[in-house]
Every structure is written in structure tokens, then in C-alpha cells.
Amino acid sequence: MGLRIFGRRGQTVPAPAEQKASAAGRVAALAYGSGRAVWSPRDVSSLTRAGFIANPVGFRAVRLIAEAAAAVPVICQDHARRFDTHPVIELLRRPNVMVGKAELFEALYGQILLTGDGYLEAVGQGQKGLPGELHVLRSDRMVIVPGDDGWPVAYEYSVGGRKHRFDMTGSPDPICHIRSFHPMDDHYGLSPLQAAGVAVDVHNAASQWSKGLLDNAARPSGAIVYKGADGQGLLSPEQYERLVDEMETHHQGARNAGRPMLLEGGLDWKPMGFSPADMEFRETKQAAAREISIAFGVPPMLMGIPGDATYANYQEAHRAFYRLTVLPLVSRVSAAVAWWLSEHLGAEIDLKPDLDQIPALAEERDQHWRRVSEAAFLTDAEKRAMLGLPPLAEG
């Protein structure tokens, strides 16, 4: 092939005589050390186990966002027209022999939500220079190696003590790195799970405390007090064994629920209840669940968390969920993947969510189309531009 259309960071090849680079990038590179791996400052594995695998609220929030985002239809177009068939569409329809489009993007969105970073790997050679397959790599196994200018020169992927190095100095790039905004890290993203870390700990601790109550380990339901005739409070071993056997046989289990207790020989029953402070664990757990939902951008109403009336109804919460959480995530990831694949393809294409195919936004779509269609002062070309449609072909 002759000249490359796309190079590193949008530069064309052959490169101009004057190389441009960020002055701040060099400072960041010196801070980490050129050529050395930049390790993530967070323990991704522990956060994932505590906030996703062992926490139902975090699990449901991630699955809800990832599944909804992966199900959003994506439009492939360039500056002139929208494509019904295109090599990029075929590649995304079946990224590899193991998974389809929905599974690939669900895994990619899940990695971004859990770790703040998502990595796509290009494998083989396909149509028109595109990769033959796309694979999602685990973020906890990937390490960035920065160069002298602060930009990544390589990615190291570690599995079982073995490492594979992806060279990022050539073109096209073998790795597409999508990161969430992190104000204190130059190379890695910040995940919602990190922001919700304290709420996750509180929610898990409240669940463990509740489990302890169910196991009767936190607080007994009552106590049997013995007062002897001479003022002693001790039972003989035979009396103690007989009392325990009597309680286990006649006053425990569902079959003996509500059965009256006959006490003799100075025995007295003292019931034990929960103090108001002990009863607050339920409210604490619900508050922690709301904080986890808010960190991920999921309305608590959609999570089934009681006591939240931020939205007037379920439909409004559903629409806000798509507008504020799902669509921004899909738009950002689609744009990054489109630019990465454009570098492979040698021609610029654009991927963006098809808002007309999202049922949750149907009412907004109808109102918008009605307003534009009734605007008599607009031409047909201007109306199509306002609706995000490509211009009609001449003739």
C-alpha cells in the first residue's frame, strides 16, 4: 500500500518535518519513567469481587447498563451517506467465531464500568484492511508502557506469568484503548465502582450483619434467668442439660412456633428486642444501595430500591436512564471504535447510536420529528440535517 491516510493521533504519513507533541506529556512521562510499565493504583480484582460478584446492587447496575448499551443499534456512515452494507458492519455483526456483536460490546462496556478501561484487540486481516476478528481483553491484565512523549508505545498483557507486548509505534494500532475520565491518572480511567467503593463496603457489611441475625449469632431472642431459693444463679450440670434438651425438643423450630413455655424451679423468661440503633441497619443498607445506583447512573427506581421518588413514574426514569447514562456511553465508545477502524480501513467512517430505534425515546423522537416537519421555513435538506440524516444523492 502507498501512503497511509491515518497515522498516530490523526497525523498523516509521510509525517511533516516538524513533529508536534504535548509539552505536558513529556513531564508525565518523566514522572512515570520512560519505557517502564505504569501500574494501575487500584486493586481491580478486589473491587470486582466485592462490588460486582458479591454485591447484588453493583451486579444489577453493571448488567443493566451493559446489556442496554449493547442492544442499542449503531449506524455506520461517512460524511456523504449512510451505509446499509459495509465491511465494518459485517465485522461488528460477527466480531469473532465465539461471540456476536451484543456479546462483544456487553463485555467491553462491562470492563469499562468495572475498571474504567476497555481494550479491543485486532486479530488477523479481513476485508479492505480491516481486522479479521475483534476480541475484548481483560483490563486487569493490561499494563500501559508510556514513551518519551507520554503516549503509550506498547501495551503488555499478562496471563499466568506470561506476557505479550502489543507494539503501538506503528500503524494501524493493534489495540483500541477506551478509558473513562480520571482527574488524577494520565493513562488509566476511573470506574464508577471506585467511586462507589465505600457504599459497597457498607452494603456488604449490612448484608453480613443481617445474615448474622438470621443465624441467631448477633442477638438471642431472649434469656432464661435462674434464681435459686438461696439466691444462687447457677444450675447443676444435670439441671442445665435437662433445660437445654427441653428447649431444643419443645420450643424450637417451626413445628413448635407459639407453643407456651412452662418454667419451674425459679426460672424466669426475659425477652430481648432490638434497640432503635439496631433497627437502622435496614435504612443504612438502602441508603448504600442508592449511592451505588447513583454512582453508576442508574435511577434507583429501576433497581427496585424502595423509598426513592426522584422520578414521577417508571417511564420517566427509564428515559432518563437512556439519556444520561446509556447513550453517552454508547456514543463515546462508538466514536473511539470508529476512528480506530478507520485507521485500519484507510477511510474515515462514523459509528453512532440510532436514536430512532430506541423504544424508550420513541415519544421524544415523535415530538422532535413533528416540530421539524412542521417548520415551513426550512428546506428539505435543512430538515434532514437537523434530524441527523445524510443528504440525499443528487438525481
TrEMBL record:
Top-rank taxon of the source lineage equals Bacteria
**Which InterPro entries does the record cross-reference, listed alphabetically?**
Phage/GTA_portal, Portal_HK97
The name this protein carries in UniProt is Phage portal protein
